[in-house]
Amino acid sequence: MQGLLDLVLGTVLPRVATIALLIAAGVALANLLVGLGAVRAIAGLSTPLTRPANLPEEVGTAILTTTASTTAGYGMLAEFRESGALDDRATLVAVTINTFFGFAQHVFTFYAPVLIPILGPEVGLLYVGARAAVALAITCTGVLAGALLLDERDAAAAVPSAVEADGGADDRPRVDLLRDALASALAKTRDILPRLAVIYTAVALLTARYDLAAVAGAADPLADLVGLPAAAVPVIAVFTLDTTNGAIVLAPLVEDGLFTPRTAAATMLVGGIVSFTVSTFKRSIPFQYGIWGAEFGSKVVLVNTALKVFWIAVAVALLLAWP
Fold first, then answer.
1. Which positions, given as ranges, span the membrane (predicted)?
2. Are the C-beta atoms of residues 62 and 98 closer than 8 Å to each other?
């Protein structure tokens, strides 16, 4: 009993308290930056992408909007398609280019304020950097596809002027923005803190009493196939169900030396492939079908899935092969 108390007070409590404070500060700052219109700085990158992809310049407004709201950005593209300004091929190119800007939204709302504090700066930045590289690679694939498959007639297509961009700065007083940012930070911290404490305690007890690598030894063939430690298998299983919980499980294992920063990031990327496959059926298909209809929505899901799995696999291979 005394050993359990020492473990909780000496190991779990400091970790949980530190992470909770960082999450609260990060979420507050992220919400404040979004409210002040910081997303426009990233979305401004959209203009030089639409031109070489042979897309109308106005499509850049949909990309800008995606940085603030994926649903709104997709809705704008759907309106472009329905108006005849974009055909199916041009719409698929635009959806693909959208990928990096949709990812950028999550940097502000999840990766920076939540995931990096849980994983620590080295692992967190390596993983988020890998995810950013994957998203950018998909966007560049879209630009290349537009350059090869579309022509100047697509770029000259008229886009309805009624479609306006969303996602600018919030014009409320800054004190209101700050109050809302703090409220959001407290709500997010209250939501995560119980899971954080329970999972950290469970992982601390597990690693203190058992050799996790030996326990997961039965899954060695799967781990060897990818080139990850056997202990990656249970982490991937948790990550498939919930990204935050997966990170919470992984963080103490990195500190205990079971994972290097590169194998930890690769494990989360592999978990992302499995998780993405699951979420495709739970969220992506209903969302895409709702935006585009079943026929074209299926094409969007197929393209998104194929590109994400391919580029994540490339990122995992590079992480594990890097000397």
1. 12-39, 90-112, 124-150, 192-210, 230-251, 263-281, 301-322
2. yes
Q: pLDDT by residue (tens digit) across 118-145?
A: 899 999 999 999 999 999 999 999 999 9
Find out whether 229 and 217 touch, Cβ atoms under 8 Å.
no
* Domain ranges within the chain, ordered by starting residue: 210-323
What distances in angstroms separate CA 140 from CA 32, 89, 306, one per listed residue?
A: 30, 16, 15
196, pLDDT greater than 90: no
Cα dihedral 108, 162, 46, 276, rounded to 10, equals 50
CA atoms within 13 A on the CB side of 238: 17
- pTM of the predicted protein model: 0.74
| Residue closest to 113 by CA, chosen among 187, 32, 24 | 24
- Give backbone dihedrals phi and psi of 23, rounded to 5 degrees, phi first: -65, -45
Is 307's pLDDT higher than 90?
yes
> Directed axis angle between helix 285-292 and helix 294-321, to 10°?
140
DSSP string covering 214-227: HHGGGGHHHHHHHT
For the stretch 156-172, pLDDT in tens is 554 444 444 444 556 67
